[in-house]
Amino acid sequence: MQDMTEEIKRLFFGLSVHAPWPMSYPNGRIIEEESRHITLAFLGNHPFAKLKQELQHFPSPEFPIGPVGICDELLFLPVDKPRVVAHHISWLTDGEKIESLHLATLDWLEKLGYHVDRRPFLSHLSIARSPFQQKEWKEVFEILPVLITGVHLYESMGNLRYSKIWSLPFLSAFEEFEHTADIAFHLRGLSFSDLYFHGALAMSFKFPPFLEFLKREEMRDLNHVIQALNLMISSCDLEMGCPFKAVSYHGKVKEEKGLLQWEMVVDV
After folding, report:
1. Domain that holds residue 261
2. What are the DSSP calls for the chain, one per residue?
3. What CATH number has the domain bearing residue 147?
4. Which parts of the chain have pLDDT scores under 50?
5. pTM of the prediction?
6. What is the per-residue pLDDT across 142-191, written as a single tens digit (0 to 9) for each?
7. For the chain, how many structural domains are there in total?
């Protein structure tokens, strides 16, 4: 018999996200920035104490660096009677590994005796709930870069508020640092292609339309990365004007514990 004094919480696992969010949105019940997430597994109402004891055994993600992607499409869910405005996410890195983490989380929870939903995983990020006008949202939608910052156990507090009660943070794909007269970022990746994607995303956080000029291609070395980023800049400048002048041929790639690291300096 369940102890009536046990604290019951409405629980789910999710991925926290960071993005250059718009300053305003059309009408709707907007989810606060710090509460926006990608759901991995919904548990429902359960005693927290039981799960708390097992969190040390949560499945290890296969990616040490937070995956990055593009919010490339507006979704209204569920399709038959939409109640949610969401962004679909197209992953640039580790999309398959995110799905693997989703499945591993479900398997782990089932072994612990929880009922789980086995519907196919849809990479989406909820932004608002009804009431809303689809036409208004379609008119203002623009693609956005998105960065995953960690996996968490959340408690649903009601009124679109979600509190993190357990966290497993990821290394950030990029971090800005101060640089005289320019902008600069520490980039991390497992490959040169990662450095290209992470460099493009870092600049897109400053100017989201820059994403439109990203090419999904393999990178051979650092020179190839810099050339590809500068091609993005020149293409962007030609079509719409670009706040960046060039990525500098600066620094060398360092390797530490299997990770590539590079300081990207951008002339502005």
Report:
1. 174-267
2. ---TTSPEEEEEEEEEEE----S--SSSEEPPGGG-EEEEEEEEEEEHHHHHTTGGGPPPPS-SB--EEEEEEEEEESSSS--EEEEEEEESS-HHHHHHHHHHHHHHHHHTT-----SPP--EEEEEESS--HHHHHHH---EEEEEEEEEEEEEEETTEEEEEEEEE-B-SEEEE--TTSEEEEEEESSHHHHHHHHHHHHHHH-GGGGGG-------SHHHHHHHHHHHHHHHHHHT--S--EE------EEETTEEEEEEEEE-
3. 3.90.1140.10
4. 1-2, 4
5. 0.94
6. 999 999 999 999 999 999 999 999 999 999 999 999 988 789 999 999 99
7. 2
